[in-house]
Amino acid sequence: GEDVEQSLFLSVREGDSSVINCTYTDSSSTYLYWYKQEPGAGLQLLTYIFSNMDMKQDQRLTVLLNKKDKHLSLRIADTQTGDSAIYFCAESIQNQGGKLIFGQGTELSVKP
Amino acid sequence: NAGVMQNPRHLVRRRGQEARLRCSPVKGHSHVYWYRQLPEEGLKFMVYLQKENIIDESGMPKERFSAEFPKEGPSILRIQQVVRGDSAAYFCASSPRASEGYTFGSGTRLTVV
């Protein structure tokens, strides 16, 4: 079956790096995504990685994909208080159109 | 730079009433997706529509819920005879092609009293 799991909470100090982890079960994932949700708002696409890639870097964001272990991580360098939000990982499944399977979200709290 | 527009932002309905949620996709996007987010949970897929067609409704409850995306006008998610358990945030997303990254709207927060 399709399942995406994330830890629920992460707390870091401003300036530190944050690493948010995600595991998924479906080996036919095509793309894996990271979304950010601020309170009362919709989801903002942060970055995504194609399933045949190992790593993608975009400014302060680094995505690592371990396809063998079905493990995805998002590293935020130099975390700022404005990064406080809920972060969702999601996978798209081959031959299922654009349907995404979301994790339950990791609430990142950045303390000054 | 109009993204996905959802309205209303907040909707309060009494039990037994109907709720109609509207979604205008990004101009030129013909694929629309509806997701539901229950309190403190992730998003759950409900339905995927492409102009005038329902492509995948595997996440829709079998009764009381329906969705459409007419040739002209916004996509509508309709919930008949709402119950307290329907209280949630409903998000719409659109994309120009299937399996391409979405743009999400800001959601409609439905409260059933």
Overall number of strands of chain A:
11
Mean pLDDT of chain B: 92
| Radius of gyration of CA atoms of chain A, rounded to a whole number | 13 Å
- Distance N to C terminus of chain B: 36 Å
Structural class of chain A: mainly beta
Q: What structural category do the secondary elements of chain B indicate?
A: mainly beta
Number of strands of chain B: 11
Largest sheet of chain B: 7 strands, mixed
Largest sheet of chain A: 6 strands, mixed
Order of helices and strands of chain A: EEEEEEEEEEE
Which percent range fits the helix content of chain B? under 10%
The pair of chains with the biggest contact is: A-B, 24 and 25 residues
Q: What is the subunit organization of this protein? A: heterodimer
Task: Describe what you observe in this structure.
- Chain A is an all-beta fold.
- Chain A has no helices and 11 strands.
- In chain A, strands 2, 4, 5, 9, 10 and 11 form a 6-stranded mixed beta sheet that branches. A 5-stranded antiparallel beta sheet of chain A has the order 1-3-8-7-6, with no helix packed on it.
- In chain B, strands 2, 4, 5, 6, 9, 10 and 11 form a 7-stranded mixed beta sheet that branches.
- By secondary structure, chain B is mostly beta strands.
Comma- or semicolon-separated keywords:
heterodimer; A: 112 residues; mainly beta; five-stranded antiparallel sheet; 11 strands; 0% helix; B: 113 residues; seven-stranded mixed sheet; four-stranded antiparallel sheet
In short:
The complex is a heterodimer of chains A (112) and B (113). With 112 residues, chain A is mainly beta. Chain A contains no helices and 11 strands.
Itemize the secondary structure elements and their pairings:
The complex is a heterodimer of chains A (112) and B (113).
Chain A: E1 4-6, E2 9-13, E3 18-24, E4 29-37, E5 43-50, E6 55-58, E7 61-66, E8 71-76, E9 85-93, E10 100-102, E11 106-111
Parallel strand pairs in A: 2-11
Antiparallel strand pairs in A: 1-3, 3-8, 4-5, 4-9, 6-7, 7-8, 9-10, 9-11
Chain B: E1 5-7, E2 10-13, E3 19-24, E4 31-37, E5 43-50, E6 53-56, E7 65-68, E8 75-79, E9 88-95, E10 103-104, E11 108-112
Parallel strand pairs in B: 2-11
Antiparallel strand pairs in B: 1-3, 3-8, 4-5, 4-9, 5-6, 7-8, 9-10, 9-11
